[in-house]
């Protein structure tokens, strides 16, 4: 089955630690995205990538980092510099960036809690 | 910058009835896509319906249809014959280089 997987489903972190959230897709999509969702809010874009070895900052990139070494994988690292990292994180992918191919499909999400 | 506004934080509908969720957006692009996504309690984001801005015909997907008013920048979602499984958060989104989302409408379906 084609789809997007995210792991782990739940993640707990102590303050001052970096953690990495996994996102893998087997849809052969070129573009991948990371969003953050807070209670009562819509989704806000953290980073996106159009192609391997290239990525761009979204609206709230501070305190986060990403890599795109393989087409299928787009891991997100939440660093200790992120002041309020407790949130629900969603990964998405699409055939291509932008209007014409921009229908995005989402993974099941990771709930990160900072203790 | 794009903005997407959902003015109804919560809506309620009885089973088998029809409900309309509102969405307005603002974009400077001439060509764009609009989406409605559903997020049930599992929190999985599910695509409900997509509208291409250059198409005048309103998109439909089974019980789901949209009323797309391009000049007014309005994109409402109509759910017909509501079912208990329709209860969820519904997000409106507009395409740019990524998606810009509204804050969502929580839909409650009562028996």
Structural account:
The complex is a heterodimer of chains A (115) and B (111). Chain A has strands at residues 4-7, 10-13, 19-25, 31-37, 43-51, 54-57, 64-66, 76-78, 87-94, 105-106, 110-114. With 115 residues, chain A is mainly β. The mean pLDDT of chain A is 91. Chain B is mainly β. Chain B is built from no helices and twelve strands. In chain B, the strands form three sheets. In chain B, strands 2, 5, 6, 10, 11 and 12 form a six-stranded mixed β-sheet that branches. A four-stranded antiparallel β-sheet of chain B has the order 3-9-8-7, with no helix packed on it. The termini of chain B are far apart. The relative contact order of chain B is 0.34. The mean pLDDT of chain B is 94. Classes of the chains: A mainly beta (115), B mainly beta (111). The A-B interface holds A 33, 40-45, 48, 56, 58, 88, 90, 92, 97-100, 102-106, 108-109 and B 4, 29, 31-33, 35, 37, 42-47, 50, 91, 95-99, 101-104.
Task: Provide the fold topology.
The complex is a heterodimer of chains A (115) and B (111).
Chain A: E1 4-7, E2 10-13, E3 19-25, E4 31-37, E5 43-51, E6 54-57, E7 64-66, E8 76-78, E9 87-94, E10 105-106, E11 110-114
Parallel strand pairs in A: 2-11
Antiparallel strand pairs in A: 1-3, 3-8, 4-5, 4-9, 5-6, 7-8, 9-10, 9-11
Chain B: E1 3-5, E2 10-14, E3 19-21, E4 24-26, E5 33-39, E6 46-52, E7 60-61, E8 64-69, E9 74-79, E10 88-95, E11 99-101, E12 105-110
Parallel strand pairs in B: 2-12
Antiparallel strand pairs in B: 1-4, 3-9, 5-6, 5-10, 7-8, 8-9, 10-11, 10-12
């Amino acid at each position: 089955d084609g789809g997007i997987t995210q792991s782990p489903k739940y993640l707990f972190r102590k303050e001052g630690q970096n953690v990495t959230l996994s996102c893998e897709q087997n849809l052969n999509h070129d573009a991948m995205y990371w969003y953050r969702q807070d209670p009562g809010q819509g989704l806000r874009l953290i980073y996106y990538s159009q192609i391997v070895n290239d990525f761009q900052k979204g609206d709230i990139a501070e305190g986060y980092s990403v890599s795109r070494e393989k087409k299928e994988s787009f891991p997100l690292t939440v660093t200790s510099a992120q002041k309020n990292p407790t949130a629900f994180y969603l990964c998405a992918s699409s055939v291509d960036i932008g209007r014409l191919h921009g229908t995005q499909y989402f993974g099941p999400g990771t709930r990160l809690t900072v203790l | 910058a794009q903005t997407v506004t959902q003015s109804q934080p919560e809506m309620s509908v009885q089973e088998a009835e029809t409900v309309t969720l509102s969405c307005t957006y603002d974009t400077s692009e001439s060509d764009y896509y609009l989406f409605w996504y559903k997020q049930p309690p599992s929190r999985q984001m599910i695509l409900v319906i997509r509208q291409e801005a250059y198409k005048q015909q309103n998109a439909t997907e089974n019980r789901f249809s949209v009323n797309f008013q391009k000049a007014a920048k309005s994109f409402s979602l109509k759910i017909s014959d509501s079912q208990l499984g329709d209860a969820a958060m519904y997000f409106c989104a507009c395409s740019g280089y990524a998606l810009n989302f509204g804050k969502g409408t929580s839909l409650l379906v009562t028996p």
